[in-house]
Design brief:
The protein has about 300 residues and is an alpha/beta fold. The chain has helices spanning about 20-25, 45-50, 55-60, 70-85, 100-120, 135-145, 160-175, 185-195, 210-215, 260-280, 290-300; strands at about 5-10, 30-35, 60-65, 90-95, 125-130, 150-155, 180, 200, 225, 245, 255, 285.
């Protein structure tokens, strides 16, 4: 009898995401088991319980998913899982805390695609502002844009201190080169937008981070992407399904990308990464870098 495909879901949170569970089953895993409120010092033991119980053949049908909400902690958990492996007892691992890696990958790859399509430019050297960028998705997007060569400013409604903590954390964990920025009042947001070529809206649902009036001051804006699917739009003028649609701004040539357009790519990326775990003959370790490559492949056909 062939062994079942089993996915062990490790998370430091109190619960795993139903979205992640659905995606894992839809991709082909036959058993999906959550382990919640997991601490870093438990990761080695849980990993080795998973690998030693199935034999060299069974480990090919076994995977570990790393969730939670903290991308820095996900990095540490991935490192612990890797060091706990004892070849040939080694399984595939996929980290996507709070869906941040796949969502950020979809957003940044979509921006990159529209930048090439409409302006014949790359992200390298561009001025990127992340509005509401201190959460998991915003932080992951900051890493991706920075590693692509953009100058990235991570802005927070809570002020410069919160932004600095987020910026320093992602720089330390992921080798990014981001800067903190303050968006605690209208004047500060306007000053940020005036120099931005790329604006990424990653604030929580139902919060508008850039109004139509503020966009009038965006003299250099090329591409804006918004993740907020709950009215009002996080970035005014961007519709849910926009994928490179004209966006009114001070530059007169901006295009926008909506949350459902990003979500469609994110779905494909996450499904593809789970499938890769299932189909790979050798263990794979998948994180934001792999998600970004998947996303680039998906947007290339748009």
């Amino acid at each position: 009898m062939e062994k079942l495909y089993i996915l062990h879901m490790f998370t430091p949170s109190q619960n795993v995401s139903p979205f992640d569970v659905n995606m894992a089953y839809d991709a082909g895993f036959q058993v999906v088991t959550p382990y919640t409120a997991l601490t870093l010092d438990q990761v080695t033991a849980y990993t080795q319980d998973a690998i030693f119980s199935r034999g060299p053949t069974g480990v090919k049908r076994t995977g570990i998913f790393l969730g939670g909400r903290d991308i820095g902690l996900a990095y540490d958990m991935m490192d612990m899982v890797k060091r706990a492996m004892v070849p040939p007892f080694e399984v595939s691992v996929f980290a996507d805390p709070s869906g941040a890696f796949t969502t950020a990958a979809a957003m940044v790859a979509s921006v990159e695609h529209q930048l090439r399509k409409h302006f014949n430019q790359e992200l390298e050297g561009r001025e990127v502002v992340l509005l509401g960028g201190t959460g998991p998705v915003g932080s992951a997007a900051a890493v991706l844009a920075s590693t692509a060569g953009a100058r990235v400013r991570v802005a927070s409604h809570a002020g410069l201190a919160r932004a600095r903590i987020a910026s320093e954390t992602i720089n330390a964990h992921y080798g990014a080169n981001t800067e903190p920025a303050d968006m605690s009042d209208v004047t500060k947001i306007q000053a940020l937008l005036e120099s931005a070529e790329i604006v990424l809206g990653a604030a929580k649902a139902g919060v508008q981070v850039a109004s139509a009036k503020q966009l009038e001051g965006c003299k250099n804006l090329k591409v804006a992407a918004d993740l907020n699917a709950v009215p009002p739009a996080g970035i005014a003028g961007i519709a849910l399904t926009d994928q490179g649609a004209p966006l009114p701004s001070g530059s007169g040539k901006s295009v926008g990308i909506g949350p459902l357009a990003v979500g469609n790519i994110k779905y494909q990326v996450m499904h593809g990464m789970f499938e890769r775990m299932l189909k790979s003959e050798k263990p794979v370790y998948l994180d934001f870098r792999d998600a970004f490559q998947f996303a680039r492949e998906r947007v290339a056909g748009l």
